[in-house]
Write a structure and sequence with these properties.
Elements (H helix, E strand, L loop, with lengths): L1 H10 L1 H5 L8 E7 L13 E6 L2 E5 L5 H7 L7 E5 L11 H10 L6 E5 L2 H13 L7 E5 L6 E5 L3 E8 L5 E8 L8 H6 L4 H7 L1
Parallel strand pairs: 3-4, 4-5, 5-6
Antiparallel strand pairs: 1-2, 2-3, 7-8, 8-9
Length: about 200
């Protein structure tokens, strides 16, 4: 009898909760989409993914921070940068951006997700050019051969997707987590749903 009652409540979930969920606003802003040689028409690769009030950067080619200025992207909202692979046109802009963050007085942590070799390459540059910067910088190693979750918060996950290239390379899948549904009080009373079942229906 209990399983039947349980399935009955789940079957009427839409009636009780209304809309299943609403997605956060999602936008991709292309800062650059050029190949290895930048041109006057195409900057090196970089994109900003906006999900709700969060911003994530994917790749940081040369000239990225100029494009941030031109497209009116707020520097301070970028806390996570994902680097697909270690060809220069995807990461030459990093040291300049890191330095600019320091000059702007940034205090919030910055997280960079990339092949483990990037940290070894960047550390001497940071120590030389950004000595004394006031914000913490964290490098997170990615295994580009594996499909795995590399970032997670309370609303989204970011997964690495292995890609074929001349060197280890991955794409990134931004996935919004399902939200709990909101119960409609009148319908809860109409179906006489006991308190202990309400969280399950959500």
């Amino acid at each position: 009898f209990v399983p039947f009652i349980h399935s009955h409540y789940i079957y009427h979930a839409f009636s009780v909760t209304g809309e299943r969920r609403t997605m956060e606003p999602f936008e991709i802003q292309i800062l650059g989409c050029g190949s290895a040689l930048p041109t006057t028409r195409h900057n090196a690769s970089s994109q900003v993914v906006k999900i709700g009030n969060k911003q994530f950067m994917v790749d940081c080619g040369e000239g990225t921070q100029l494009q941030l200025r031109r497209q009116h992207v707020h520097f301070s909202f970028i806390n996570h940068i994902f680097i697909s692979h270690l060809h220069g046109d995807h990461c030459f802009g990093l040291i300049g951006l890191i330095s600019t963050f320091a000059l702007l007085g940034r205090t919030a942590p910055l997280h960079i997700y990339a092949d483990h070799n990037l940290e070894a390459v960047m550390k001497p540059q940071i120590e030389f050019f950004c000595n004394g910067m006031k914000y913490p910088l964290f490098f997170h190693s990615i295994d580009a051969t594996k499909h795995q979750v590399i970032y997670e918060d309370n609303t989204i996950t970011v997964e690495s997707l292995p890609l074929k290239h001349r060197m280890p390379c991955c794409g990134f899948l931004f996935r919004e987590k399902p939200k709990q549904r909101h119960l409609i009080g009148d319908m809860v009373n109409f179906y006489n749903i006991p308190t202990y079942m309400r969280q399950t229906i959500k």
